[in-house]
Amino acid sequence: MGQSFVAGIIFIIFALILGGKPGLIWQATEKWKNKEAKGPSDIFTLVTRTLGGVFGIVGILLLLGVVK
Fold first, then answer.
1. Is residue 22 within 8 Å of residue 49, measured between CB atoms?
2. Given Cys at both, which of 14, 40, 57, 60 links 26, Cβ 3.0 to 4.6 Å?
3. What is the rounded end-to-end Cα distance, in angstroms, of the chain?
4. Ranges of the chain whose pLDDT falls below 50
């Protein structure tokens, strides 16, 4: 297994977490900053899911060997 293959797998795992559970990311990174935190904002969810999509694309490109 090459380094790009392993990196591709890691990127895809991050993509699934970012895209599938933006609330989990919000709890780990933002909830503690506000006493009255009720949940992630719509913009936070959109940005997190978009970032997950970018990570997914990069992960697939790494697995295919297009990017090294």
1. yes
2. 40
3. 13
4. none
